Amino acid sequence: MRRKSALAAGAVALIVAMAIPMYATGATQLSANMSGNQVVNPNGGDPNGSAKLKLRVNRAKERVCFKLTSNLSKITGAFIHKGAAGQIARPIITLFNTREKGTVKGCEHNLKARLIKRLKRKPGLHYADVTTKAYPDGAVRGQLK
After folding, report:
1. What is the mean pLDDT of the chain?
2. C-alpha separations of 94 from 13, 60, 111, 128, 134 in Å
3. How much is the pTM?
4. Structural domain spans, the chain
5. In what order do the strands lie in the sheet with 91-96?
6. What is the spatial distance between Cα 18 and Cα 34, in angstroms, rounded to a whole number?
7. DSSP letters along 20-57, please?
8. Strands 28-35 and 91-96
């Protein structure tokens, strides 16, 4: 009887131990509410522009998936930068760099695990921006949260 109980307890412990890493490596959802008045470059952003970016950051799969919705026309790209509010920084992830309109969805694959880990742990130290034909230096921007 004791042997069956010990075996059952061992089996439960094994299942729990296997489940913890699977849960810990799951995707984290981040977002950014972007507007033209958050753009800090000297040319400024689109005063009427707004966008919403939703991210699913997955370290185990080394990818970031996104959904961008906006009121912008002639979008030319979307990027993630390492930088606090008010800072200007180079992009660390290019979500897309093509002409798009409407809602844009996609995934960037084969990203470095340390980059994804940093995004998950400190999203507020990163921002997203969207460029357009009229605003090539940034039409809208928003901090990740």
Report:
1. 87
2. 42, 19, 11, 10, 19
3. 0.80
4. 26-143
5. 91-96, 75-82, 126-132, 140-143, 28-35, 50-58, 63-70, 104-108
6. 39
7. HHHHHTS-EEEEEEEEGGG--STT---TT-EEEEEEEE
8. unpaired
Q: Which residues are bridge partners to 64 per DSSP?
A: 57, 108
pLDDT (tens digit, 9 = 90+) per residue, 80-115?
999 999 999 999 999 999 887 779 999 999 999 999
Whether residue 63 is predicted with pLDDT greater than 80 in this model: the reply is yes
Residues composing the chain: 145
8 Å CB contact between 127 and 142 = yes
Helices (H), 25-145: 113-121
Amino acid at 78: A
* Tokens read off for 93: 């992830």
Indicate the burial class of 47 (C-beta count within 10 angstroms; 0-12, 13-18, 19 or more).
exposed
Sequence-separated contacts (24+) of 5-10 with Cβ below 8 Å: none
Residue with the bigger pLDDT between 132 and 4: it is 132
Residue 100 CB: number of other CB atoms within 10 A?
Answer: 19
Closest listed residue to residue 63, CA positions, set 80, 85, 77: 80
